[in-house]
Every structure is written in C-alpha cells, then in structure tokens.
Design a protein that fits this description.
464 residues; alpha/beta; six-stranded parallel β-sheet; three-stranded parallel β-sheet; 19 helices; 13 strands; binds uridine-5'-diphosphate-xylopyranose
C-alpha cells in the first residue's frame, strides 16, 4: 500500500487495522517491521496520501477499492486441521465491509487464500448487500521479504483475476489503472478469478519444490562426495532450469511456502486428487527431513550428545535482511537440540529476545493468529539465552550452528571465536555461507550442507 501511495500521488491510501499499538507504530519513527527501504517509502508519503488508522469502518465505508490482507492461518482443529486455511478473519472482514458500505466497491483479495475463496466472499457480500454492488478481484502478492521494495517497484508481473462479466472486467480495468502508474502494461496480467488464486499457490509450490529438490540432492551429495554448490551451478546453467532458488539450506521457512503447499494439498484432496496431493506434500516432508537431518548431524558429530553443551545459534530469522521468524527453520532446529538437552545461546541481528522466546513457546501454526491469542509472557527457558553479539553467543560454546545467511556472519573473526570456544570446536553451516577451508585451517570441525564431509563427520555411523 505504501508503494501504491508513492507511485500514485493522485490516490489516497488508508491502511486500517484494529490493533492500536500496531497503527501507532506505523505512525511513529520506529516502524513495526524491518524491511530494507520501507522506512523511506512510508516517510515520503505518510500524512500526504498515506494514512494509518484504527477507524476501520469509517475508512472502509469511504473507499472505492478495499484490499483485504487479513491473516489466513492453517486450521489447527476441525475439518482440514493441519492443512486447510482458516478463513475466520476473512469472513468477518467481508461481513464488516457489507455492513458499513454505502457505495459500490471493488474488494480485492490480497491475502493468500484457497482457490474459490472469492466465490464464498462474493456470497457473503451479495447476501448482505443492501442494494450495493461489489466486485471481487484476486490480486495475489508475489514480493519476497528482504527485497520487497525492489520487487514492488519492478515486479516480474502483477496478476489481477476477475469475473468474466462486463462489471467484472470494469473492476479489473480499474485496478489495472492503479498499477499502470508505474508497471509496464505487458507486465500486468489479467485472468479469471480462479486462475489468479491458484497461480499464487502454484508459484509458491514451484519455488519451494526447487528448494526441496536441491535439499534432497544435498543429502545424496554428502553420501557420495559430490558438492551441492557445484551440482546447483552445473544444472542452473541449463537455461530451462535457471540458476535461481537452488541454494541448499537447512530448510525453507517464511509465512508462505509451507502454508500455501498444505493448502494446495488440501484442495487437491477435496477435489478427489490424492496422487496430486501426495506429490506436493512431499515438498513439505523433504523440508522437515532436512531440518531433522541437520539436527542429527549436529548431535552425532558431537559424540552423540549435546546434553549440557553450549551451542551458539547464529541467526533466527527465516532468511537474511528480515526480522521475520514465521516458520523459520531455527525453531525446529532449536527444539531438536533442546530435545537433546543442549544449552542454546541465540543471536540474530534483527530478532528480539521476546520474539525468540515467544516463537519457542508457541504451538505449530499459532503465529498466524493475532498476538493476543499467542503466549503473552513466554515461560523463561533455562536452556535458552538470547544475546546481542555473535562473539558473546559463541564464547565457551562447543558448537556453532549458522541458521540464517546474514552477511555479518561471513565477516566474523573466526580465529577469535575459535580461541574462545571449547575444543574440539564445531561449526555447522546450515546456509553454506562460510569458507570451509579457512575454518578447517583454523582448527574447526566443519559441516556444511551438501559439501564433502569433514573426515571427523564422515567416520561417524549415522542413519540420516
Ligand atoms: C516467498 C516467495 O518468494 C514470494 O514470491 C511470495 O510472495 C512469498 O513467499 P519469502 O517467504 O519472503 O517469499 O522468501 P523467499 O525468498 O522465497 O525464501 C523462502 C525461504 O526459502 C527462506 O527460508 C529462504 O532462506 C529459503 N531459500 C530460498 C532456500 O533455502 N534456498 C533458496 O535457494 C532460496
């Protein structure tokens, strides 16, 4: 919305939320999320044509176009638990829009939703419409965190799905005109509603599938002596495959991939396509396997136990340049190591202690609910400390796990770190960002995903 405000000075944008602290933060100098470049965009338009308000109903009533970007968590109980999207928040937003509207409106699905959600929303709106006309559009968001501003300023494509009726097409044209302020026409794709909804799930499933594919290869590389980076480079040179999204890792995280695939799986099952559902489910299963495999490598390398040993966790965000921890592989790795009674010392340049402790206390899928439904004062874990410096985190540690590929981790003084660690000193690089040879020269025992194994690790009999 901030980008729309920046690129369309003739359009007034009001971002509304029922959370007072969140809106207060958007109106302050300290924005509630960390995203490179966002501060500048918000500060350039705030109080000119970009406003943040808790007066939800007033502003919805006044708007011509309403973008709905509410949470769509994975259901944890009832029909479809563990897979289907919970549309409670979407449904109440739609009912509120119907209640307060006094003029015709275009309602845009911005939250990622299951295919055919638009149909359900349309029914809620039209059955409560008081003579007002609503057009539903699907306009999925493809930006990635950390590069959001760049992705929004120069998108590969903008996708708008609408009804194939004259009114539907008019609404599509109206939204297209908004994006046309800065996006070249040939990059604004228009489709029917269901294609747009499905394309979002499909895009994320394809991207995640590439990561699970290279991660599956990383396991085979470790067994055979191949190097996953060399394999990725070699296959990426095939222009049909391409070089992007082939970095082996401890596993993918983020608010979208797992959730959207589980959603896709559920939709396939509901449509009587169990084989297709099974196919996509594997992408998530390989991701879980990769995280478990990493923990097993750590524990088995360190004489089959980490009980009472200090392990430094460098990085908690699900990727670099974001403070976002939703579905971060760090959570599963920390749980796995705590299960073996490790003492964890965690450092991330952008994630607060409160957030880390909240994440470790949370039940699966709870992150997508409003904060008041999450653990408020998470129990202090005796086994976990959060520190604000990588040197402090690694002091007296037996091992280090790199979970996020922050640039600063590449530049640390590893000789200094080594000198202050217990011996033998282990490093487990879950992101393949460190110089393995240089670390081995210092004296570290190094494990790097999908790379030829250190003789120490190789000699261990582990079933992974
Ligand atoms: C993703 C999609 O890229 C974006 O189009 C969609 O709108 C939302 O979901 P995001 O979750 O912000 O964006 O991050 P992305 O860059 O896709 O990374 C997702 C996860 O995959 C991260 O944990 C990242 O570290 C991991 N990853 C990515 C890999 O492990 N290897 C890779 O090669 C690329």
């Amino acid at each position: 919305m901030a980008m729309i405000a920046l690129k369309c000075p003739d359009i007034q944008v009001v971002v509304v939320d029922i959370s007072k602290p969140r809106i207060a933060a958007w109106n302050s100098d300290e924005l509630p999320i960390y995203e490179p470049g966002l501060d500048e965009v918000v500060k350039a338009c705030r109080d000119k044509n970009l406003f943040f308000s808790t007066e939800v109903e007033k502003h919805v009533a006044e708007a011509d176009i309403v973008f709905v970007s509410v949470n769509t968590p994975t259901k944890t109980r009832g029909l479809g638990a563990g897979k289907a999207a919970d549309l409670t928040y979407w449904e109440s937003a739609a009912r509120m829009i119907a209640d307060v509207s006094k003029s015709d409106k275009i309602v845009v699905e911005k939250s990622t939703v299951p295919v055919k959600t638009a149909e359900a929303i349309e029914k809620i709106l039209t059955h409560n419409n008081n003579g007002i006309h609503f057009q539903i559009l699907s306009n999925p968001e493809f930006l990635a965190e950390g590069t959001a501003i760049e992705d929004l300023a120069k998108p590969d494509r903008v996708l708008i799905g609408g009804r194939e009726t004259p009114e539907g097409q008019k609404a599509v044209a109206a939204l297209k005109a908004v994006y046309a302020h800065w996006v070249p026409e040939d990059r604004i794709l228009t489709t029917n509603l269901w294609s747009a909804e499905l394309s979002k799930l499909a895009a994320n499933a394809f991207l995640a599938q590439r990561i699970s594919s290279i991660n599956a290869m990383s396991a085979l590389c470790e067994s055979t002596g191949a190097n996953v980076s060399e394999v990725a480079y070699a296959i990426g040179k095939d222009s049909r495959i391409g070089p992007k999204f082939l970095n082996a890792s401890v596993g993918f995280g983020g608010s979208c991939f797992q959730k959207d695939i589980l959603n896709l799986v559920y939709i396939c099952e509901c449509n009587g396509l169990p084989d297709v559902a099974h196919y996509w489910k594997q992408v998530v299963q390989i991701n879980d396997y990769q995280k478990t495999r990493f923990v097993k490598r750590v524990v088995s390398s360190m004489f089959n136990t980490v009980s009472g040993k200090k392990i430094a966790i460098l990085g908690f965000a699900f990727k670099k340049d974001t403070g976002d921890t939703r579905e971060t592989p760090a959570i599963d790795v920390c749980h796995g190591l705590r299960g073996d009674k490790a003492l964890l010392s965690i450092y991330d340049p952008q994630v607060t202690e409160d957030q880390i402790k909240r994440d470790l206390a949370m039940n699966k899928f709870d992150w997508d609910h409003p904060q008041h439904l999450q653990p408020q004062s998470p129990t202090a874990f005796k086994q976990v400390s959060v520190v604000w410096d990588a040197y402090e985190a690694t002091k007296d540690a037996h091992g280090i796990c790199i979970i996020t590929e922050w640039e600063e981790f590449k530049k640390l003084d590893y000789q200094r770190i080594y000198n202050n660690m217990q011996k033998p000193a282990f490093i487990f690089d879950g992101r393949n960002v460190l110089n393995v040879e240089a670390l081995r020269k210092i004296g570290f025992i190094v494990y790097s995903i999908g790379k030829p194994l250190d003789p120490w690790v190789k000699d261990l009999q582990v079933s992974i």
